[in-house]
Amino acid sequence: MTPGSSAPRVARASRGAAATGRPNRSTAVPAAVPAARPAGSGAPRDKAARRERVARSTLSVVADNPLTTYYLILGTTLALLAIGLPMVLSSSSVTQIANNKSPYGTFSNQALFAGMGLVVMVAASRLPPAAFRRLAWPALTAAVVLLALVPVIGLGANGNRSWLKVGPVIVQPAEMAKLALAVWLATVLARKRNLLGRTLHALVPAVPGALAVVGLVLVGKDLGTALVLMLLVVGALFVAGVRLRVLLGGMVIAGALVVRVLVFNQAGSNRLTRIQSTLEGCQHAATNAATTCYQSLHSFQALGTGGLTGVGLGASREKWSYLPEAPNDFIFAVIGEELGLLGTLLVITLIGVLSYACLRLVRRHPDPFVQIATGAVACWVIGQAVLNIGVVVGIFPVIGVPLPLVSAGGSALVTTLAAMGLLLAFARTEPGAALALAARPSVARRSLAVVGGVRRSAGRTPAERRRTGRRAGRRAATEPDPSTARQGRPRPVIVTHDRNDS
């Protein structure tokens, strides 16, 4: 160290000395000195940085996992179904009692259809995408035939004719048409993927087939289902890569036709009045409080009464015949009243997670058929949920659209669960997902192994357990070390005596 220097110096030989071998004067270089940290600030900062690195690594692992999409779709589906069943029981029991019926009637039917839908979902999730392609045309044909029978022999309610009675079961063919149309559009658009830049190939046969389905639904005056079908068609065409101007032009023409047919050309209907009341604001329309704004006002009261945490499960007041269609179209209002803002945010969050999973599947899967079908199903389910919530909070007029996987309704529930099974089947074929599923240990196998081990140990007496432990200890003592087993057993030493030694 030189006099007056504040840091130690180390000697570094020059290149000349190394090259010639002769001694040379060394050059003093200051040694690296670590920077001083402020007192008391190093440890918390290191811990925060470590936690941030762990969080980033965890998120990256989850994002890169090929099974993330599969588990997101499965988890959100089961969560929404678990929320819907108790809410259907809570919102329908009072009405059932008032009609001299069992308070569990609507709930038992919903639980039955939920069981059927889960079976359909599991079966659909095991099918390859090629199987859905083969079912596209037969499914659409069957849906069109059933829709054509609705105006002739169908059942009506609340001004809509949308149901068919098949023995003791009442089905809604329009719900089945949603899934059939999504698969059919994906099949025809994926087959013509390279020709969709031409307007004629983009429109035929996708648009005529979609118009046939939507037109048959409009014959039954079901505006809500028709709007959902239009969202489905738009989603399929957008993901397929149809030109934006063609897509916007078709949307404008379809919207004009719907407005002309269903809004301004219906004698004795109050649909136009409901739209006007919604635009004016039902909270200010005192004259329509008992007519067109009745449902919306009671929906607002239910949401306002719930507050942050709700009045409690089963303690709703609006379900006592004040809020019409509480188990169906306005079940979101009952959720807000009984579970509060937190319950409604939970439902909205699950719907958002489902939409993210669908977007992830579209971006990661290489098959155009899977991409288009996923986009169509996502626009159907997510768009229907947005319409339902918008009606409940007063953004949209009352159009009669249920909340997917939550509202009461057998046909809608089974069809939506079948659509979720379709998405699960697509997620299983995502790149890397098949290998990850094959490498995953079976839950049943692990459970049986644990149960079998517990049973074997429980069936032995304490003395038998001690004897077994002693045998295991002696066996471990006599067996060679596994680390030296590769080198072979030691050879025996043979001692020989020479005759001359004796």
Provide key terms for this protein:
502 residues, mainly alpha, 18 helices, disordered N terminus
Description:
The protein has 502 residues and is mainly alpha-helical. The protein has one domain (65-431). It is 64% helix and 4% strand. It has 18 helices and 5 strands. It has helices at 15-20, 42-64, 68-98, 105-125, 129-153, 173-191, 199-203, 206-219, 223-240, 244-262, 271-280, 294-306, 331-364, 368-393, 410-428, 433-439, 443-458, 462-478; strands spanning 9-12, 27-30, 155-157, 160-166, 169-171. The strands form 2 sheets. Strands 3-4-5 form a 3-stranded antiparallel β-sheet, with helices on one face. A two-stranded antiparallel sheet has the order 1-2. A hairpin with a 2-residue loop joins strand 4 and strand 5. Helix 5 packs parallel to helix 8. The longest helix is centred in the last third of the chain and has 34 residues, at 331-364. The radius of gyration is 35 Å and the shape is globular. The N and C termini lie far apart (77 Å). Residues 1-23, 25-29, 446-455, 481-489 and 492-497 have low confidence and may be disordered. The chain crosses the membrane at residues 70-89, 109-128, 135-157, 202-219, 225-242, 247-264, 330-357, 369-399, 405-427. It is a multi-pass membrane protein. Keywords: Cell cycle, Cell division, Cell membrane, Cell shape, Cell wall biogenesis/degradation, Glycosyltransferase, Membrane, Peptidoglycan synthesis, Transferase, Transmembrane, Transmembrane helix. Residues 1-51, 455-502 are annotated as: Disordered. GO terms for molecular function: lipid-linked peptidoglycan transporter activity; peptidoglycan glycosyltransferase activity.
